[in-house]
Automatic annotation (TrEMBL):
Residues where substrate binds: S45, T67, Y261
The species this protein was found in: Oceanisphaera profunda
Keyword Transmembrane helix: no
UniProt pathway: Cofactor biosynthesis; pyridoxine 5'-phosphate biosynthesis; pyridoxine 5'-phosphate from D-erythrose 4-phosphate: step 2/5
Residues that coordinate or bind NAD(+): D147, D235, G260
Lineage of source species: Bacteria, Pseudomonadati, Pseudomonadota, Gammaproteobacteria, Aeromonadales
Official protein name in the record: Erythronate-4-phosphate dehydrogenase
Highest taxon above the source species: Bacteria
Amino acid sequence: MKLLADENMPYVQELFGDWADITTCPGRDVSPEQLIDVDVLLVRSITQVNKALLAKANRLRFVGTATIGCDHIDTEFLTERGIAFASAPGCNKVAVGDYVLAALLKVAVHKNWQLKHKTLAVVGVGNTGSQVVQRARALGMKVLQCDPFKALSCPQSSPTDFVDLKQALTADIVSFHVPITRGGAHPTWHLLGKAEIAELKSEQVLINACRGEVWDNAALLARQLSNTPLTLVIDVWEDEPNVLVPLVPHVLLATPHIAGYSLEGKARGTFALYQALAELEQLTPAHSLAQLLPAPAFTRVELAACLDQPLLARLVGLVYDINLDDAAFRAALGQPGFFDRLRKQYPERRELASLQLVLDTITADPAQAQALGFKV
Ligand SMILES: NC(=O)c1ccc[n+]([C@@H]2O[C@H](COP(=O)([O-])OP(=O)(O)OC[C@H]3O[C@@H](n4cnc5c(N)ncnc54)[C@H](O)[C@@H]3O)[C@@H](O)[C@H]2O)c1
Ligand SMILES: O=C(O)[C@H](O)[C@H](O)COP(=O)(O)O
């Protein structure tokens, strides 16, 4: 079979090499002509898979996206054409949890905050949002959950578990984890719009690690240029790979849509498609995910101290230093193609779970360390 894959997808050769002739190319450059005679198309979030792209795809029978978000795929059209489809729900949720934890610890230093005295609202409590809820609770924070769909399906939970967006937006820190939707009962396009931004207090912190269009970036810039700017952490931007350049100096942490870019997260994405294709074609998968991943740089730390905020920040920084991503973003900002280049050349990043903490159980709580994302 002939397979075309985004060149930024790791382990395609290792996993699909026995089954297919593989061609790779930049995700933004996939053209209708390249899809002639292709049986399998594997993409990430930057390839728009729609009627126009598939106009000449005479043999295509499987499309897979190695991502959580599926907003770049016209799934109705795939169904109409009888083309099987798979995505990778949850593949990089742990990486997003790591990213937000790293960001929270930087915010705490910047604002001189003890996080355990602060409230975090999570907007969208699915795979990635739940990771953030878990970590924030492990930090001792008060957590508000905002998810009208989840609230409906959890009638047994205490009424204080879920709040509406208006209440969520009163928290010290608000982290967004919704898909981008333009219709339905609770659309998320510009969920944080001009009116919501106007209500926020200047002490508040906002984090966006879901999709850029969930926030009105122009309205945010206007707010940042006022006398009462907010503290912002932005991983995803409206109209990527373009970035509203004047906004960047007014953002505490700015990164190029890499919250989910752990090696494990990307590998899980490719692996999910490997399993889906195996099922569709009734092939026997011969590889395991664990075999593919190299050993991490740091595997084990013994601790005799209490896992307080400064120590936690050092441990997280050992595995994932978010400042490096922010510095690389600012250094490259404005260069042609900088956004895609940073993503393509992204250094190997491991998840916190790759580091085992050996704790003195008198001074530290293993359950807390595990909930923060470490192996214990
Ligand atoms: N920055 C990154 O690298 C990165 C990585 C992974 C995912 N993402 C993005 O994050 C999104 C969320 O990922 P996920 O795995 O948590 O998805 P998910 O589908 O597991 O969870 C999304 C949650 O949002 C809720 N939701 C939908 N509309 C809402 C609204 N108006 N208000 C509040 N909640 C709402 C849903 O009920 C659901 O529980 C993805 O769709 C993707 O676009 C970004
Ligand atoms: O939806 C997702 O899974 C993420 O946004 C994903 O990490 C985006 O990375 P990309 O597919 O653009 O490489």
